[in-house]
Amino acid sequence: MSKFAHLLILLCVISSQSALADGPQDNSVKNVRPIPQVGIEIPEETKTELQEKLDHLAAKINELKTPKHKEIQHLIPDVEVFHRAVTQALLHREMFHERDIKTCVTLLKTGTERAEALKLGKAPWTRQHGLVVRGFISDLDGTVQPYGLEIADDYDFDNPRPVRCDIWFHGRGERTMEIHFLSQRSRGKGPYPPTSGIVLHPYGRYSNAFKFAGEVDTLEALDHVEKNYQIDQDRISVRGFSMGGAACWQFAVHYPDRWFAANPGAGFSETPLFLKSFQGETLNPPWYEEKLWRMYDCDKWADNLLQLPTVAYSGDMDSQKQAADVMEEVLKRHGIDLMHVIGPNTAHKIHPESNQIIRAKFDSLAERGRERFPNSVHLTTFTLKYNRSNWITIHSLKEHWERSTIRANITSKNRLEVATDGITEFSINFPAGHSPFALLEVVKVDIDGQEVSTVKTKSDLSLNEHFHRRGDQWFAGPSESQVPLKKAHNLQGPVDDAMMSAFLFVSPTGNDELPNLNEWVDAEMSRAVKEWRRHMRGDVRIKKDSEVTEEDIANYNLILWGTPKTNSLIWKVAKDLPIHWGDNTINVGDKKYSNEQHVPILIYPNPLNPKKYVVLNSSFTYREYDYLNNARQTPKLPDWSIIDITTPPNFRWPGKIINAGFFNENWELKTNN
C-alpha cells in the first residue's frame, strides 16, 4: 500500500469517527448536544400496548415478591432487569429506531417467560450455556442493573469446578441504553468467545468508560457472577476495546493484584494528550482539576503493571493507538517493554490475525494464573481509594494526589526490605497458610534503611504486621496519633467518591429568606436527580430531611441539599465542618463569603457517623459537556469549593468557582486556602 493510500484511509477513519460525534465540533460549551439523544416519537397506540405488557410483567413480579415464593427472591432481578429496561426506554424516549419497539416486545416476552418459570420454581437460564443476560440489585442506588455472560459449553452445572473468567469492557455507544445492551448480549458473541470458562460483559452504567458508578457496576457484576458460578479467583482477567480499552487500562493499574492479565485495545489512557490528539482540544483547567486527573490518568500509575502481565492491542491506522503508545513510552522509563500487538492496515477494529495472537497469549497466561503472593510487591498510588496490591495495604499518605510508592521485597528466608515514598502507614498481610517465612524463623523488617522490628509467622502460617512513620522514624504497630479524623480507604474524597458507595439524597423542608439561593439549590438538586438517571442509569434514593432515620445515617453517604436554615441535617453537622456556614457568611479560614450569593460544596466524614460521608449540594461533579468524550469524565471539584451563584450554572460548572481546595490528611482546612 502506498503512503498516499495509507494516509487517505487514516483520514477517512478520523473523519468517520468525527462524524460519529467526537472531534472539535464537540468542543463548544455553549452548544452541547444531548447524550443520550432524544429518541423517536412512539405512536400512542404502541405506547399503550407496551405499557399493558409492562403492567402485566409488573404484576407477575409483584406476585413473585410475596412470602409464598421466598425461595426464589434472589432470582427476581433476572426478571426485573427486562421490566426496568423497557420502562426507561418508553418513559424517557430512549428508542432511536422503529426496530427498538420490536426489541422491547422481545425483551418483555423473555421477562414474562422467566417470571412464569420462577412461579413454578424453575430458572432454566441459570443453567444455560452460551449467551445469558442477568441482573443484580446495585448497592449504589438500589436499582436493578444488567450484565451479560458467555458461558462455554464445557461449564459443568452439575459438578462445577472453578473456571477462568474474562471481563470484557464494551466500546462507547451513545445509543446503547439498557434495551440495546440486553438485546446485543442476547444475540451476539464478543470478539473473544470462550472455548472454556466464562466471559462477563458488564453494562457499566452506560457511557462513562466504566469509571465512577461504572467502576462500581463492574465490581458488583463480578461479585454477582462469583456468587452464582464457580470462578477461579486466580484466573480472572480484564479486557476491552475502544472505550472498553480505556476501562481496561484503569482497572489494570488500579487493581493490579486482582487479575491474571490485562488486554487493553485502543481507547485512551490519560486525559490531556488524548483530548489534544483525538478531540482537537487544548485544556487549561484550574489547578485542582488538573491534580484530579491523577485519579484516572493511567500513565501516572503505569509502574503498577510490574505486578500484572499486559498485552495491548492497536490497529496501525487507528487514531486511538495513541493510548498504548503513551503507555509504552512511560513503561520504558520503568524498565518494562510493553507487549503491543499491532494489526496491520487496520483502523478502529481488532485485526483477525491479531485476535488469534492475543488469544494464544491469554490462554498461556491463564495457565500460569495470577501470582497471589509474589516475593516482590510494587504499588504506586495517588489516593487511598486504590491502596492495596497483593500482601501490601497502604493506610495513610503524606499528601493525597501526590505520587506515593511502596516496594516490598522478601530478600532472604529471614529478611523483608521495604522502600517507601510518600507513605506514612502500611501493613503486610499474609492469610493463614500463606506466610512466606518458616514457622520458627525470626524475620527482620527493614524500612527505608531502618531495621524496624522482627516478626514471626503464627501457628496457622499467617503473618500480619502494621507499621507507621513518626517524623523520620518507622515503628511497628498502628499509628498512635490522637487526631479525631484521618483520611482512609473509601473515606478520602473528592466529592465524586460519595457516589461510589451507597448514598442518599436529603432534600430540604425549611424556609430561607434568600430566594436566589433556594432557586439554585432546587435547580441543582433536580438536575442531579435527572442526570443520575440519564447518565448513570439509576434512580437516586431521596428523603426529606425530616424523614432521615438513624438507620439511614448508618448505611448511607448523605448528600445534603440546602442551607443550615432549610435542611435540619445541614444545621446539625454545620458546627463540626472545617468550613463554617453561619447566618450571614461562609467562613473559609480567614476568608468570608456572603450567604446571599455563595454556596459551599464539600465532602467530609459525616459528624453523625464518621464511617460515612456527608456532601453538601453536589452529585458527581462532571457535567453535560464532559459526556461528549469519555476522557473528559474526571472529577471537576476537589474536597471543597465556594460557588458564586450570581453566575448561572452551565454545562461545565454549577456557577463561578471562586475558591476551592483539598482538606489535609486529617480532614482539616489547609493553611494556604
UniProtKB/TrEMBL annotation:
Any signal peptide, and if so, which residues? 1-21
Q: Which InterPro entries match?
A: AB_hydrolase_fold (IPR029058), Peptidase_S9_cat (IPR001375), Plant_Biomass_Hydrol_Est (IPR050955)
The Peptidase S9 prolyl oligopeptidase catalytic domain covers 217-359
Q: Name one GO molecular function term.
A: serine-type peptidase activity
Q: Which GO terms describe its biological process?
A: proteolysis
Q: Which UniProt keywords apply?
A: Signal
Q: Name the chain's protein.
A: Prolyl oligopeptidase family protein
